[in-house]
Amino acid sequence: MNLLFNTKIKNIHSYYILLLTLVLAVSCKSAADDKKTLNSGKQPNIIVILIDDAGYADFGFMGSKDLETPNIDKLAKSGVILTDAHVSATVCAPSRAGLITGKYQQRFGFEANNTGYGDSGDIGLSDDVVTMADVFKANGYKTIALGKWHLGKDKTDHPNQRGFDEFFGFETGSRSYFPLENPSKYNMLQHNGERVEFKGYMTDVLGDQSVKYIEANKDQPFFMYLSYNAVHTPMEAKAEHLEKYKKHSRQKLAAMTWSLDENVGKLQQKLKHLGLEENTLIYFLSDNGGAANNSSSGGPLKGWKGNKFEGGHRVPFIVSWPKEIKGEQTFSGLSSSLDIFTTSLAAAKITKAENLVLDGVDLLPYLKGDKTGNPHDKLFWRKLEEAGARIGDYKLVRLQNYGASLYNLTTDLGETTNLETIQTEAFQRLQDELKSWETKMMEPLWGEEREWMDVTYHIHKRLMQNKEVLYSNPKTMKALEFKEK
């Protein structure tokens, strides 16, 4: 694949956002057109709890026996657990780009991780891409982003310029969970661009802030994007939690997960105390599969973060809205993080503007039992040299200049038996559908470091061969190459 390293064309962004807001305010017709209606409670509050690099099987509601998640399990019990849910990318930044825009991020060239590389400069989100926050802000919602952003470092990519009234978090992809003495502009904790000095543990800070914003906005509908960096590396936890799990085989992950669960519990308690629990639509999911370096577990799934096997993009996913959706359910239909935007519009009774392209599906009819089957009949993934496709029971994994493998996920969830020469018609169909989808997407606007691409290539090839992966980072790769010499 030829990469297009383009420099982002910057418009007069403040003018663009003003124009965008006016257009959306006119074209997105809301059922709540005046303040009285907005404050009546008929429109739900919407909260997306996005966590980072969590394993598919690392929660009680997903079958974990060693990681304790009582509050998250309670959230799952109040709603629906989606067992065949996927994100649109297997690494952090493009996955978040897909979620917040409701469309395949390849539509606007956001395919590789981070937000630019080499000669491309920092590109981030295209200036003309509409976010979920843009639409909800234009329709009377208070919009709040908390935690990890990782969608661009340019001033036009700042959350306050992408539809969020409030931003309390950090712009980069990872940082210490504890205070930094001399943080950079991008990994400092900030409030709307101004540095916030804090004491304590980042997960607690974000949890406390989520509670404050709920309290402050209890009388109007709000959209909160609560993006925890837990359980992404560095593997840092509070001393008391490390002590609690001192004999645990995954001590640091268990401690970090416990802290995450405590803070989800804080949010639940605040909503209940304010009488907002019933009419708050909450999504809980991970931005991709568990990482190779944080002790996470994908359970029965093959692969992990960064590759196109199920362990890379099938994620734990909860949808809870007690007022409208019956709890204690499990839904096995094919679904995606792309659905969050579309589903939320339907819940808030906001009509999508005709010129707004969304690739998601409204999940509400399926979760309420009005429809059965799969919300999606097909899904696609691509990051530079690796790609995947899903149609019905069949899954294709393709590696550039090597080949492709076909699996039947109903009979082989672990993706071990390649059906390429057995189910030839299905194999050809998925290849054709993937190529057809690619014709509708852009070429990536930036790439990644060659050494990381080599590592990813190696992982895909070995997994396709059902062989042990020899290395999962450039350092180990170089050490092995040196040893072989």
Q: How would you explain this protein's 3D organization?
A:
This protein has two domains: 13-367, Alkaline Phosphatase, subunit A; 378-484, Arylsulfatase, C-terminal domain. The protein is an alpha/beta fold. The protein is globular and about 60 Å long. It is 31% helix and 15% strand. The longest helix is centred in the middle third of the chain and has 23 residues, at 251-273. Helix 1 packs across helix 5 (132-138) and helix 6 (202-216) runs parallel beside helix 8.
Predict the CATH topology of the largest domain: Alkaline Phosphatase, subunit A
| Sheet/helix structural class | alpha/beta
What spatial form do the alpha-carbon principal axes imply? globular
Mean of all residue-level pLDDT scores = 93
Q: How many structural domains? A: 2
Radius of gyration, Cα only, in angstroms? 22 Å
User: How many β-strands, per DSSP?
Assistant: 16
Q: Helices and strands, in N-to-C order?
A: HHEHEEHHEEEEHEHHEHEEEHHEEEEHHH
Which CATH top level class of the largest domain fits? Alpha Beta
Strand content: 15-25%
Strand order of the largest sheet: 7-6-5-4-8-1-9-10-2-11
Proportion in helices = 25-40%
- According to CATH, the homologous superfamily of the largest domain is Alkaline Phosphatase, subunit A
Q: What are the segments in which pLDDT stays under 50 over at least 5 consecutive residues? A: 1-18, 29-40
> What is the straight-line distance between the termini?
31 Å
The major β-sheet equals: 10 strands, mixed
Q: Can you count the helices?
A: 14
Q: Quickly give the CATH architecture of the largest domain.
A: 3-Layer(aba) Sandwich
